[in-house]
Structure formats: structure tokens, C-alpha cells
Amino acid sequence: MSLTIAARFARRELRGGLRGFRIFLACLTLGVAAIAGVGSIRAGIEAGLAREGAALLGGDAEIELTYRAATPEERAWMDTTAERVSEVIDFRSMVAVGEERGLTQVKAVDSAYPLVGTVALDPAMPLADALAGDGTLPGAVMERVLIDRMGLTVGDTFRLGTQDFRLMAALTREPDSGAAGFGLGPRTIVASPALANSGLLVAGSLYETKYRLDLPAELDLLSAKAAAEETFANKGMRWRDARNGAPGIARFVDRLGAFLVLVGLSGLAVGGVGVSAAVRAYLAGKTHVIATLRSLGAERRVIFLTYFLQIGALALLGIALGLALGGGVPVLLAPLLTAALPVPAVFALYPEPLAEAAVYGILTALIFTLWPLARTGEVKAATLFRDAMAGARALPPLPFVLATAALVAALVGVAVLFSGTVTLTLWTAGGLTGALAVLALAALALRRLSRRFRRAARGRPALRWAIAAIGGTRDEATPVVLSLGLGLAVLAAVGQIDGNLRRAISGNLPDIAPSYFFVDIQRDQMPGFLDRVENDPAVSKVEYAPMLRGVVARINDRPATEVAGDHWVVRGDRGITYADAQPANTRIVAGEWWPLGYDGPPQISFAREEAEEIGLSLGDTITLNILGRDITGTITSFREVDFSTAGMGFVLAVNENALKGAPHTFIATVYAEPQAEAAILRDLANQFPNITAIRVRDAIDQVSIMLNGIASATSWGAAATLLTGFLVLIGAAAAGEQARSYEAAILKTLGATRARILSSFALRAALLGAGAGLVALAAGITGGWAVSHFVMETEFAVIWPSALGIVAGGVLATLLAGLGFARRSLATRPARTLRSRE
């Protein structure tokens, strides 16, 4: 019965239109739209990767081997299983043009490449014709950026190792580029037979052989994978198929999308502040209606349900608008997004991200509307007739407090479930909760400080009026500090994290990082290599070590992925070194290094931090697959490995006698003065053409490009949060317009000029904005420090240009919102305003 009556009252209330709920709808719509939009774009990319899986991979399936080609028996199995097989060899090398050297990622292909898709060249020609060359030299194609960097034109000659090639065309599209992963150099494609005399693919060289398989339509991919794993058991094989043709891209998109959803939740929290403020303002305007209902005998339950149903219906409208906006805009902008994204995407209306956004919106609306609705039921009718909500107590009844806490827990649980990142989600939830608590306390402190400083403002009427208004009973400070402060805090944290990450990569590393990494140094080349670099006065330090690459296949005789999950150490192959004596720069933190000349069962020294993350202990066994051979060793020590210096570091080190007989090469790092780098590179490249030099600055630039994309996406999410905060400001300014009109009327009647009243309004807005900005800055810097220190594990320093911009932005935002409504307050005539309040 109560529900029926409440529904009838709510329906009649809704006939009055949306007056007072525009900001409510805008905040909820924008927050839900941001989350739905991010989820829809992520779903579109995932659908594109799934649809184009075979094209991205270069076939229905791929078998990858490290350091070696398939044996005749293995190749026979592939030829029997697949309708067509293409062999691709992928490695890094140096392009030589005269005295110039440039890093490139070489792809050596056979006549069957590509199995799926087409290679686009400029000038247009079949790839086979381009790789055949001009009759005197084998041909090659390069990406345009490398052609321009090396000063080449089509028809010119360049060298890879000891083999000359003729540049036949520019590579404009590579169908399987999505499967290549992160590369330090632009692509060069050559025919595999042309490398026979290059000296690049020798025993121990760092290269990967990939076999793309065109499987029969009736062959199930899971069955094919099981058969491959049985055939290649314990031979270091890695299998990928078209179900996830570009796992690195898919993983990156998934994690970035989850992070952006959490940023979107920050915006929804800001919107929740606006939702709460709008509900309070609306209920304050309904004081006489509620009082009348109470006087006529309406129960608290009926009144609560009346406005709960009304606000619930409006919340559902706002969520529906947000879903339409967040789901529809990616579809409408599909051509632009598809052209801008470096990966395939299929944009459509995907139910899952829309359902996630709807759940977030419903829970947020409930959390931020329950308290004002509950408090209304506790206000007596006589108090309601006097003043809006002044008689309500600070906290609602205990059941509502418990219900709100349960809803908050549900929201966090849903965020953990949907994002799949427990730690990051909990950090975000804790940060938002802490920021809201700090901002609420800051608003209270700002009000109390303003009351104390009234006397200090004597003789300055405009300032005194502004301070009095901030500390007055209408509480203008809380909605402004909460809404704007939370938006600015998110933006400040993002700015500090981004700035410190960029500084760590591009600012600090050159002071401590090596000039070059040199790889593929043959054992017999090491004396000549060291003679050149160690006797150069411009070289301050040289480090070198033998290196093999292997796969962590098993841990304690269990599949490594069962023990370590998706940890990066067991994902793909890892660099492995060996040593007899403990290196001088190695610090053992647990266990002991093996004795000199040790020749017993293999022993392993593991990096401490990674061991803790995986859950390893001294005495555990690890099976490494190197060149198709399994080597099982026991962990006898843990050591500190610092990867942050961009120097030499290995997760796994093995005793010398366990690995020295395997084909391998050496790597070295050279620390030299910048002016000597070119001469070192030139001399070593001329003496040892097979050696590949990786300039650390080039690697840093590649990482910076990736960071730019992440920072841009994150900044857009933070900007949406800030926009929501600005909408809340507008709502607060609009809600206080009537009070400011009355205030202006009183001041005009007492002789104040329009200019002085306007100055008072401007000072009030500026003080509130500065307060919100300063508190947001403190919260943002704290959040940035926490993420940098605990998550990124980098040093932290305040990025002051970004920090000062946040404070200035807070002042400007409140000025714009406050002055936008102040003009109408000043324009009203005092007599009309005062008469209406009688």
C-alpha cells in the first residue's frame, strides 16, 4: 500500500519536469558515458583482434623456436599437419651505408610468406620480385623511416653483416606487424637464402624462427595445439594461434582499458558529489511539500519511497543517456577511430561494457542519494517549515549507514571483478575514499578559518563579505571543495605520475645508463672487442657477460605458468647468463654462490624481487629449456638485481659448467662520453659486422612514444573527471543563485556598489577555488608519490609546473562558475527580491 501511494506521488512530482535535476543528470550521464565509452572501445579492439587474428599472426597458428630452426622431423610434422607452412626468421642487426650505421629489425622470409594478407610496397610490386633483387644483388625492402634515416633511395646499396643488398622498395604495410611485439628498430625484409653469407645467423646468435601454419578448415585449433605440444615436448616451442594473434597488444589494451575505467570511476565519484548536492538542493526546495505530507499523516516510509522512486527514475534516465552516449559515440566515430588506432577494431554496441557501466552508475547513484533521502525522513515537520534541512542530524539512522557501507563494498568488489586488477583497484578505491575524507575535512577547516579571519578583514568590505559567506550557515565550501577538489586531485596525481615516469626514463637515465648495448659478440671476438673499448680514454666502464636465451618451462616439476601465473619471467624466453666466480657487482641476499670450478648438478642464482613475486624459495628446482634441451637446476641463492639503471642484469644466472658448452654469444654494455659514441660504433661495426649495437637513447625514445600514448589516454580520462567537477560547480552556483540575489539586494539597500558586490563574489569564488586547488594538490602529490614509489618503484619529485597549474585551474574554474551566475544576481532589483522573501 505504501509503495502504491509513493509511486503515485512520485509520478505527480515528475510531471513538474527536470527543473533542479539537470546537473544531476549531467553528472551521472557523463560518468557512465566515460566508463561505457572506454569499455566499448576496448571491446571493439578485442573484437578486431579476434576477427583479424589470423592476419595479425600471419597464419592460423605459429610455432616459435629460439636460437634454432626446426629439425627435419619437426618440419615434416608441420608439413603433414598444415596445408601450407611459411618460415620467418626474426632478429636485430645493423644497416651499414658507408660510415653510417642504423639499428633494424630484420625479417627473413621464404617464398610462401605471407600466408595471410598482403605486403604493400612503394613503388607497388610483388614482394617476391622485390626480394629477388636486380640480378646482381639480392633485394630488400625497408620501412620509410629507416630509408630516410640512412639517406637511402630506391636502387641504393646497403649492407647487413657481410652481405650487400639492393633497396628495391619502401615497406608501407606489413600484414603481421601486430604479432611482432615491441621492436627497437624499423623493419627490413629480405629473403632467407640471401643471409647465407651474411655471417649473422651463426651458432649462439640471437634470433627467433617462426613457422606460420595454414591449417585445414576442419582441424580444431585446440587439437592442433595439443598435437604440437606433444610433438615438441621439452623442445622450447611456443604456440600461438588465431584465437589471440597479438597477445601482447591484447594484454596491453586490456590493462590500459582497466586502468582507464578506474580513472572513469574517479569521474563518477566526482559526479556522485554533484548527484548528492542536487538531491539535497531539490529536497530543500520540496520542504513545504514534505511538511504538508507529514502534517496530513504521511509516514516516513511513504515520504522516503516517494522521493526514492522519483530520484531512482531520474537516475535510470541519466544512466540510459550515459549508456547511449558511451556506446553510441564510438560507433558514430568508428571511421575516425579505426583510422587513428594502430590495431584493427570492430565498433558496435557491445552488451558487456554497457552492463558494467550501468552497474557502476546504479551503485554510485544509490551511494550518493541514500543519505540525503534518509536524513529527510528524520526531519520534523515544524523544522521543515522553518528551514530546509537545518534540523536534520549529521548522520542518518544506522541501517542507512550500514546500507551505504555495503553499497561501497559492493562497488569496490564489482570494480575488482570487472577490472581484474585487485591491487590497482584497491589502491584507487582507497585513494578516492581518502581524498574525499581529506577534502571534506578541508572544507570544514576552510569554513572555520574563515570565521576566525573575519576581524582581519576589517576595512576591506568585499573581502569581509566573501569570508563571511564561506563560513556562513549555507555551507558553500563543501560542494565546491569536494567536487572541484576531487577532479583536480585526480588530474594532479596523473600529472605527477606522468611527469615522474618521463623524468625517470628520459631525464635521469642518461646520467647512469650505458651508451650502447652490444649483442651477438662471438666468443673469439671478445678479445678484439675489449681491446677497442677498454683502451679508449672516453670509455668510463665496460661490462660484459655470456648470454643465452631460454624458457622457464617448469618450477618444482610443475608447469611454470601454474606456479607463476602470468608473471613476466615465465612469459616468453628470458636472458640467462653463467659465471664461475661470483661477479664483483653481485650482492647475494640469501643462500650462497657455488664454489669455484663447481661441476656438479646445475645450480641457479635467482633475482630476489622476482623470486618473491613468484613465491620461490631456496632449494626449489627450475627447468630451463635452452635450444630445445631441458636443464634442471636448484636455486641456491638469491641476489639483488637493479633493472632501473638500464645496465646489465639477469634474472637467472647458472654455474659455468652447466651452460658453457652450449652455443652462445656475449653481450656488453659500454659507458662512454657522447662525443666518442659515433667513433666506437663505426670502428666496431667495421671490425665485427655481425655485432648489433643498440643505442640506449633510441630505446628510451621508443618507450617515450609508448608513454605518450598512455599519458594522452589517461589525460582524457582525467579531463572527463575535471569536466564533471566543473558541472558540479555550476550546479552549486545555480543552487546558490537565489541566496546570492538576496545577499546582493541587502548590500545594495545598505549602499554597496555593484562593483564591490561583484568583487566580493569573485573573492569568494577565488578563495574557494584556491582552497580546493591546494588540497587537491596535496592529495594529488601524495597519490602520485604512492604510485611512483610502490607501483612504479621510481624516485619521486614534485613536478611544479603541473602542480601550480592545478591550483590556477581551481581558481579559474570557480571564478567562471561563480561569476557566471553572479551577473544575474546583481541584475535583480532589491525591492522585488526583498518583497519575495517576506
TrEMBL record:
Is Repeat among the key words of this record? no
Its primary localisation, in coarse terms, equals membrane
- Which positions, given as ranges, span the membrane? 21-41, 256-283, 304-337, 357-374, 395-418, 424-446, 761-787, 799-822
**Record's Gene Ontology CC terms?**
plasma membrane
Keyword presence, Transmembrane helix? yes
Q: What keywords is this UniProt entry annotated with?
A: Cell membrane, Membrane, Transmembrane, Transmembrane helix
Question: InterPro entries attached here?
Answer: ABC3_permease_C, Membrane_comp_ABC_pdt
Domain ABC3 transporter permease C-terminal: from-to ranges: 263-375, 719-826
Membrane topology (UniProt): Multi-pass membrane protein
Pfam families given in the database record: FtsX
Q: Where in the cell is it found?
A: Cell membrane
| PANTHER family referenced in this protein's UniProt entry, alphabetically | INNER MEMBRANE PROTEIN, MEMBRANE COMPONENT OF PREDICTED ABC SUPERFAMILY METABOLITE UPTAKE TRANSPORTER
Name it: FtsX-like permease family protein
- Origin species, per record, is Thalassobius vesicularis
Ranked from the top, the taxonomy reads:
Bacteria, Pseudomonadati, Pseudomonadota, Alphaproteobacteria, Rhodobacterales
